[in-house]
Structures are given as C-alpha cells and as structure tokens.
From TrEMBL:
Keywords: Coiled coil, Endosome, Lysosome, Membrane, Protein transport, Transport. PANTHER family: VACUOLAR PROTEIN SORTING VPS16, VACUOLAR PROTEIN SORTING-ASSOCIATED PROTEIN 16 HOMOLOG. The gene is LOC101389724. Belongs to the VPS16 family. This is Vacuolar protein sorting-associated protein 16 homolog. Residues 517-835 form the Vps16 C-terminal domain. Residues 349-376 form a coiled coil. It is a peripheral membrane protein. It comes from the Eukaryota. The keyword Signal does not apply. It comes from Ceratotherium simum simum (Southern white rhinoceros). Residues 4-420 form the Vps16 N-terminal domain.
C-alpha cells in the first residue's frame, strides 16, 4: 500500500491528489504544441491540432495541416487546410470540430475530418474580423462566443439552432480585454471580461460592473480567468500573483491563494470531483504545474515538455508530446482503503482477502474485527466503489475479489451493485484500450451514459466493439445492436471503391430482418452520397412500401414508385405517386403510364370524377371508351349546364357516344330524354308552371294535377307509356286532388287494366270510406275479400270467403276478427272450417 500511495499528494489536511499516466503518446507531431491551435474534447474525447502559420512571428507560406487524434495519440484524420485563417478550435458536445475563422465563418468537421457544414456569425463580425473566440457548452448544446476587432461580443448559445446575439457595448473599452470567458447562469449565456482592475458582466440587456468579494487589494489587472466544468465556480488570476476562487455569480468567495508568481499562466483550469467539498485550480506555466485550493500550501509538478490541460468532470487531463496523464482528487473510498495505517472497514477487508490467499490465519482476525464492529456491509460497498475509481485492471480485480470475499459472510447482501460494477469496469477497460483511446473515468462514464458512449464508438467507426458492449449488457435490440448495424450500413454505402451489388449484398447479409433497422434510411444515405442504383437495390429489402415510395420519388424514379405503391395496396400511397407523376410528366406520357397500370388508372379516374372532370373526359377520349364518355356527358349535362340548349347539346353528344359504343338502349333512352326536355320547355312556355327536370311520370302527373288530361294522355302516347302505368298515375293524381267525381268518371271510361282493388286502396289511403265502397262491388272475385276487409266489412268478407271455400281467405278474415263484435263472425268461420273438414 505504501508504494500504491507514492503518487498521492496532500492538499491541506482533507484531500489528496494523484496524477497517473493514461497513455504513452506515440503520435508523430511535426510541431510543438505551443505553435499549434489545440482543442481537446472532454470525456476522453479526441484532440485536434492545427499549426498556426498566421502568428505574426511566423512567416511560412506552407499551408497548415489539420490533424485529429484519439486521446491515446492514434491518428484519426489529417487534411490540408485550404480555408481562411483560423482563430480558435473547439469541440461540440456531439464531438464535431468547430473551426472559427477570422472572417466569422465557423466550419464544422466530423471526427474523421469529413466536412459537415458551415455558418457565419454575422455581418458585423465579418466587417470587424475576429480577435478571439470561445467554444462553450450549455444545457441547450454547444455555443460560440466571438470578440470582434471593434471590441464587441457576439454569441450563439446553440450552434445547432443558430440564433446570434450581439452583447451590449462595454463603456470606454478601447482595446482587447486582458482576459474573458463565457458563463452560463440561470439558463442564459453571459460574458465576463476584465479591463484593467475592473470586471464587467454582459448579458443580453446590459453591461454591469462586478466586484469579486474579498479580493486582495492592489490588483491592477486580471491576467487569466477559468470557469469550472459545471459553470458553477470561477477562478481569477491577478497581476499580484493571487488566485481568487469563488462562485460564478461572484457573490461568494471560496478562498484565495498567493502563488508568488506574477507571470501570466498559459492555462488555468478547475480540478474538482462531483459532490466533493474540496475545490482546486490547476495552473500551468511553461515548465511548471501548480494545484492550489483552500490550503496554505500547493502541489507542484515539473513539466518536462510543453503540455496542454483539458478540464474534465472529475479532474484534469494533461497531455504532451510523449505522455497523457490524469490529475484528480483521490475519491473518498480509495482514500479510506489505501491511506497509510487506515483502519477503515474496506482496508481491513482488503487485507483479510490478501491474507486468505496466503492461507494465513490473520484473514480470520481481520474479518472478525470487521464483523464485531458490524461494518462488513460497509466494507464490501467501499471495495466495490473504490474498484470503480481505479484505472489499473489489477487493482480493480484486487478490490473486487475483496468485495466478493466479504459477500460470502453476509446473508442478505444484494448482488446488483457488485454485478453492475463488474460490467461497468469491463466496458471501461475495453474503451480505455490504447487502440480505442477513450480514457473515461467511472464518474464520467456514469454522467455520459451508455447510449452516448455507444454513439461515440459509432462515430469512431468501432462497430464491432459497440455491438459486443450491447450484447454484453443485454441492451434491447432496437436501442443497441440494430441501431449500431444501421450506422454501420450508412457508413458502408459511403465506400465508393466497392460495387453497388457487393455493398447491397453485404448489408443484407449482415442486417437481414433485424428489428428496428430501416433499409429506407440506409438507402437515403446512399442516395445522398450519389449512389442512386445502390439506393434502389437497398430499397428492394425494405418491407414497408410506405418507406420505399417517398425515397423513390425523391430519386425521380416515379414509375418504379408507382409499381411499389400498387403492390402495397395502399390507395393513399398510389394517389401520392399519381399526383407526383402528374406534375413531373407531360400529359401524354402521364396518360400512357396510366394505361400500363390498370389499378392506377382506375384510382385516377375516381379522383378525376371528384376533382378534375375535364381530365376524366380526356382519359375516356384517349382510351376510346365511348360508353363511359357517354355517361360523362350525361352527368355533365346536369352538373354544369344550366341552359336548356347546352343540356340538350350535351345529351345529344352522349347519345352519339352510346351509338359508337353500340349501346342502343342507352342511346335511345338519351334521345328520349332530349325529346322530354324539349317538350317540358314547350309545356312551360305554353302552360306555365315547373316542368323542367321532372321525370316522365312526374310530368304526366303534373299535367293531370293541373287539369290537362288531354295533354297527359298525348304525352303518354308519345312516349308509349303502358295503359296500366298511365291508369296508376291518373288514379294517384286524382286521389291526391280529391276529385272523386272525376275519379268515378275515369273508372267508368273503360274497363280498368289494373282492376278496381287499387281504387279501393287509394280511397282508403285518403280516408274516404264512402268512395271506396263504390268500387267494392266492381272488384273481381279473387280480390273481393281484400276489398271488403279494406273498408272494414268483416262479416261480408267472411261470407264471401266461406262461399269461395278458400282456406287462405278464411285465415285472412279470421286475423281481422279482433273485437267482441266480430265474435259471431269468427264462430261462423270456425263452423265452416269444421264442415269442410267433415266432407
């Protein structure tokens, strides 16, 4: 244990800090770090270097090279910089590299040097140029703050949703501030800057002078400032050599330290652990590194090489040409276990386990001591927690073995925390590997979350490792393996040195029918890369037509899209393609396409019936469909034509079409309608009243009702209305008029072709029993019983039924015998039935 704590450095009485090596860097740097613009992403992210040829002391004319490395120094990308002078580099939360140029244009590159997009910080920045820039992170995303040559600030709190904000002017500011930074307070981005001995806080509305509480006197200038990883704390380095530390709101002072160095530091960053009460700041000069906090002494390290500091959630990464190290506060669990002469439960359990492996009886002594104090559960938990904070796998195993050993003597210790820690450490050790180069700590890993870590592995194109992690952690397929395979497929389609056929086959063999994978998304990526044929091949594997069709339309493969839509049986999808085709093709080609697709043609006709009648007519004309064309003209004659002449002309055109279709019946019926229309117009002119648009029967009825019986009979003769139908029409019309005298004359004009029962029925319908009785005697024998029952003469109906000896008629009369008055009639019928049965 003494050797293990050799690199522990105390800061005051309550905290230790240690620095250990993450990687030995084998990168082949052509320039010193001091001669480059450097940006390193947090959470073990990549490192970007751009040699700065625009420095005044440099006069080289060679174009610089932008290089991107993993945290372990493995090259990820290298590209020749062909754009304008760069002022600052920084990484977004999505690990995109933001390059801020002097003209205010920000170029965005991917992890592998692929250009993503660009945006401008506004015309004012373009005119005044960029003096300095900061990339910062908020809960909304990654932001950019710009200091222009006019000494004004412009910022955007989220580059993903660019909204530029020009900050208020600082009164009396004639030169660049000595130092400045971006702060995030109350969900709003601010700028804090130093001008001589004064500090100013800029928000969207005003510029406010602020004073750090408890600042040592004699300060004439602030040389450096640093905001903590969580934007809660602020450190100020003054020209007197003092470092003031307090809250970012500048309302509370934490401590102040005199480092006795007045030279401005190269970098100053915070080094604090989550939920730790200790706050420390790391300050770096050329060959000196100092850790200061709320203690009279500091921790100092000698820097053998030019180094760069990267603030992290729970510490500071320090990399140079040859090494990459991590400096952090020793976690409480580790401190209690490994501190010299520690009697903490975890320390005793670790010793017990080591003695047990040596087969020493001391193991029992240590274990009994822990059990007597009732601290065995706490000891196991301490070992599990400490294992998570260890970087070396051998120490992780030693602590986990101790925890496992202690669990054996506990009855009800839940295994979840132990199992989860084993899983987490296995994942962490995998991503910390030199070839992967993501040196996450346990705290960073928990803050980052598994899905984000998987996204970062996908960004690095480490698909096999990402899939292994998903399978090991048993993540749901849609969130894990399927999502990663989809990303792999999207990367695969960008490999233009492989044929379309081979790429499509490889993707299908790997993906198959994996749930959650959309071939249409992969095809869209292929189309975006200019590989249309590959996109079409991939769409063949997409089972959902609703996903195939939109992309095919986007690729201008409309006819193929139409075939796919028809195969799907989704009429809405077919209509979508048809409307797209209509706008894309000329009229003739569109109609020819429809002729080759009967289902599409039928659906389009349905659409045209409701929306585009003229197009429907053109379709019928092109297909020589005279039958439908005739029907179209008939509908059009009534829907569109108000004038009788236009309607007659349209009907005549319809009749001609029916003749061409060899539909004699339809043609004759149409011609009869033309005759009727002309006759109705003549009747209106001669008699007045409304006749147009009435049917033939209604026209006859109207003539009878208006007293023009002769005209009605002539119309019936002209249109060959059968006598039976005419008698019915006249009978109904006279009854509606209640012209009973004329009705009686009409009944006697000649023998009724419809009989006289209808007369009885119509009269009773009009509630005229008196008139109905007049026709009862004239009703034929077969309908006599019905007529008598209609007028309510049940007794006489019974006599007629008995006389006819008709069982059906007897039953009908019997069903009408309901009241007491009909009792005798019912008995008469029953006796007649009995006599009939005896015979």
């Amino acid at each position: 244990m003494d050797c293990y704590t050799a690199n522990w450095n105390p800061l005051g009485d309550s905290a230790f800090y240690r620095k250990y090596e993450l990687y030995s860097m084998d990168w082949d740097l052509k320039e010193e770090l001091r001669d480059c613009l450097v940006a390193a992403a947090p959470y073990g992210g990549p490192i970007a270097l751009l040699r700065n040829p625009w420095r005044k002391e440099k006069t080289g004319s060679v174009r610089p090279v932008l290089e991107i490395y993993s945290a372990s120094g493995v090259p990820l990308a290298s590209l020749l910089w062909k754009s304008g002078p760069v002022v600052s580099l920084g990484w977004s939360a999505e690990e995109e590299l933001l390059c801020v140029q002097e003209d205010g244009v920000v170029l965005v590159y991917g992890l592998h040097g692929d250009f993503r997009r660009h945006f401008s910080m506004g015309n004012e920045v373009l005119q005044n140029r960029v003096l300095d820039a900061r990339i910062f992170h908020t809960e909304f995303g990654s932001g950019v703050a710009i200091l222009t040559g006019a000494h004004r600030f412009t910022l955007s709190a989220n580059v993903g949703d660019l909204k530029l904000r020009r900050m208020p002017e600082v009164p009396g500011l004639q030169s660049a501030p000595s130092c400045w930074t971006a702060l995030c307070q109350d969900r709003v981005a601010h700028i804090l800057l130093a001008v001589g001995p004064d500090l100013y806080l800029l928000d969207h509305a005003a510029c406010s002078a602020v004073t750090p509480p408890g600042l040592a006197p004699g300060v004439s200038s602030f040389l450096q400032m640093a905001v903590s990883f969580t934007y809660r704390h602020l450190a100020l380095f003054t020209d007197t050599g003092y470092i003031w530390m307090g809250t970012a709101s500048l309302k509370e002072k934490l401590c102040e330290f005199n480092c006795n160095v007045r030279v401005p530091p190269k970098q100053m960053v915070w080094c604090s652990r989550p939920r730790s009460k200790e706050k420390a700041v790391v300050v770096a000069w050329e060959r000196r590194l100092m850790v200061v906090g709320d203690a009279p002494e500091s921790i100092q390290f000698v820097l053998d090489e030019d180094s760069y500091l990267v603030p992290e959630l729970d510490g500071v990464r320090i990399f140079s040409r040859s090494t990459h190290e991590f400096l952090h506060e020793v976690p409480v669990a580790s401190e209690e276990i490994f501190k010299i002469a520690s009697m903490a439960p975890g320390a005793l359990l670790l010793e017990a386990q080591k003695e047990y492996e040596k087969e020493s009886q001391k193991a029992d002594e240590y274990l009994r001591e822990i059990q007597e104090l009732g601290q065995l559960t706490q000891a196991v938990q301490q070992c599990i927690e400490a294992a998570g904070h260890e970087h070396r796998p051998d120490m992780q195993k030693s602590l986990l073995r101790a925890a496992s050993f202690g669990k054996c003597f506990l009855d009800r210790f839940p295994p979840d925390s132990f199992v989860r820690m084993c899983q987490d450490l296995r994942v962490l050790n995998a991503v910390r590997d030199y070839h992967i180069g993501i040196p996450l700590t346990y705290s960073q890993y928990k803050q980052l979350t598994i899905p984000v870590l998987l996204d970062r592995l996908v960004l690095r194109r480490l698909y096999p490792l990402a899939i292994q992690i998903c399978e090991y952690l048993r993540l749901p397929e849609v969130q894990g393996v399927s999502r990663i395979l989809a990303h792999w497929a999207c990367y695969k389609v960008q490999q233009k040195d492989v044929s379309d056929e081979d790429v499509a086959r490889a993707i299908n063999q790997k993906l198959g029918d994996t749930p959650g994978v959309s071939y249409s998304d992969i095809a869209a990526r292929a189309y975006g890369c200019g590989r249309t044929e590959l996109a079409i091949k991939l769409l063949e594997y997409e089972p959902r037509s609703g996903e195939q069709v939109p992309l095919l339309l986007k690729m201008k493969r409309s006819k193929l899209a139409l075939s796919k839509a028809i195969e799907s049986g989704d009429t809405d999808l077919v209509f979508t393609v048809l409307l797209h085709l209509k706008n894309e093709l000329n009229r003739g080609d569109f109609f020819m396409t429809l002729r080759n697709q009967p289902m599409a043609l039928s659906l389009y006709r349905q659409f045209c019936k409701h929306q585009e009648l003229e197009t429907l007519k053109d379709l019928y004309n092109q297909d020589d469909n005279h039958q439908e064309l005739g029907s179209f003209h008939i509908r059009a004659s009534y829907a569109a034509e108000e004038r009788i002449e236009g309607r007659v002309a349209a009907l005549q055109t319809a009749a001609d079409a029916f003749y061409k279709a060899k539909n004699e019946f339809a043609a004759k019926a149409t011609e009869d309608q033309v005759r009727l229309l002309r006759l109705q117009r003549r009747l209106e002119d001669e008699l007045g009243g409304q006749f147009l648009d009435l049917s033939l029967h209604d026209t006859v009825t109207s003539l009878i009702l208006s007293g023009h019986n002769k005209r009605a009979e002539q119309l019936a003769r002209d249109f060959r209305i059968p006598d039976k139908r005419l008698w019915w029409l006249k009978l109904t019309a006279l009854a509606d008029l209640e012209d009973w005298e004329e009705l009686e004359k009409f009944s006697k004009s000649k023998k009724s072709p419809i009989g006289y029962l209808p007369f009885v029925e119509i009269c009773m319908k009009q509630h005229n029993k008196y008139e109905a009785k007049k026709y009862t005697s004239r009703v034929g024998p077969e309908q006599k019983v019905k007529a008598l029952l209609l007028i309510g003469d049940v007794a006489q109906a019974a006599d007629v039924a008995i006389e006819h000896r008709n069982e059906a008629e007897l039953s009908l009369v019997l069903s009408h015998c309901t009241g007491a008055a009909d009792g005798a009639t019912a008995d008469k019928i029953q006796r007649a039935r009995a006599q009939a049965q005896k015979k």
